[in-house]
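idk why but the lab printer keeps eating my pages so im just putting this in chat instead. protein + adenosine-3',5'-cyclic-monophosphate:
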Amino acid sequence: MAGSMERTLVFVKPDGLHRRLVGRILQRFEEKGLHLVGLKLARLSEDLIREHYAEHRGKPFYELLVRFVLSGPVVLMVLEGPEAASVVRSLVGATSGAKASPGTIRGDFGVSQRFNLVHASDGPASAEREVAHFFAPDELVSWRPSDMDWLDETAGKEPNS
Ligand code: CMP
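predcted complex ->
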């Protein structure tokens, strides 16, 4: 990957599927200039969820969080682009929908702290770990969008040169 290109992990939680918001959520990432390198619908196993949320074990909301994410399918995606992890986090907004700014995914589509529609890696290191946790290497497709030179000035040549 050239320059500051990064990959990050997002999954739409069961509330996003029940509310039929998957397309609108994915559209926000694409419109911003990120592109998909991995995408799948899955029911996560309890072991995978508990491992993913291990840092929250023991917190008052932990068991309810595990039950919520177990309660239905999720849509997992790996997005690539310049500074992808921080770009995605800013599009997603604060953890609680009630506090998230208007214009963010959580700020526009929810008011709940637990049912907050998406999980997004919180930085490049966790993104690398979480991509490997949820995707096998052969599930990821490397490719270069045709408009990349207009999206990332570190990507290489001048547009149209
Ligand atoms: P996520 O970004 O997936 O990381 C941990 C999740 O725990 C978070 O989104 C919420 O779904 C949930 N969560 C965090 N804090 C609380 C809380 N105080 N009460 C209920 N759920 C929470």
